[in-house]
Amino acid sequence: MKPRRAALGSALFFALAPGVVAGLVPWWLTRWRMSPAPVAVRIAGAALVLVAVPSLVKLFVRFVRDGLGTPAPVAPTERLVTTGAYRHVRNPMYLAVLSAIVGQALVLGRPGLLTYAGGVAAMFVIWVRLYEEPVLRQQFGAEYEAYLRAVPAWWPRLRPWRG
After folding, report:
1. CB 69 within 8 Å of CB 77
2. Smallest Cα–Cα separation from 21: which of 156, 122, 132, 135?
C-alpha cells in the first residue's frame, strides 16, 4: 500500500473507531458534564488522557510507516508491526483507547464510564482472540508466532522485545 493511501485510510479509521469509542460515546453518555470527584482523581484522569491520545496517534502513524497499511481490517498492514510500543505489548492501541475512556471517567467523576470501559475491554479481548490473532497467524505465520510467544497481549513487558 502506498504511504499516502495508508495515511488517509488510517486517519479515516482513527475517526471512525477510536474517535467514536473513546470520544463520541463517552460524550454521548456524559455530555462531558462533571460530577463530584477528588482533585487527585481528576489529575490522574487528565494524565491518562494526555498520555493516551498522543500515544494513540503515534501508534496509528507507526502502522502507516512501519506496517505499510492501516489498523483497519479492510486495509491491513503488509508487514507485522513490532516496533515502538509493540515491542512491549501486543495491543497498545486498545490499551490507549481504554486509558482515554478511564481517564475521562476520572476527570469527569463518572463511574458509568468505568462500566463502559469494562464492556469495551471485554469486546477488545474477544475481537483479538477470535479475529485478530487467527488472521495475523495466517498472514504472518512463524514471524507472528514468535512475536506471540515473546510479547504479552495486555500487560507490557519492561524490557523491549528485540525480535
Report:
1. yes
2. 122
Q: What angle do CA 38, 39, 41 make, to 5 degrees?
A: 70
Give the pLDDT confidence of 116-139 residue by residue, as tens digits: 999 999 999 999 999 999 999 999
Nearest of 59, 55, 53 to residue 107 by alpha carbon: 53
Provide the H-helix boundaries in 35-140: 39-67, 92-108, 111-127, 133-140
3-state secondary structure of 88: coil
Q: Cβ of 126: how many Cβ atoms within 10 Å?
A: 10
List the pLDDT tens digit at each of the 163 positions of the chain: 888 999 999 999 999 999 999 999 999 999 999 999 999 999 999 999 999 999 999 999 999 999 999 999 999 999 999 999 999 999 999 999 999 999 999 999 999 999 999 999 999 999 999 999 999 999 999 999 999 999 999 999 999 999 8
The domains of the chain are located at 3-150
Measured in whole angstroms, the distance separating CA 24 from the mean position of its chain's CA atoms is 16
pTM: 0.96
C-alpha cell at 74: 479492510
Q: Are 117 and 102 in contact (CB under 8 A)?
A: yes
Contacts of 65 (CB under 8 A, 6+ apart): 3
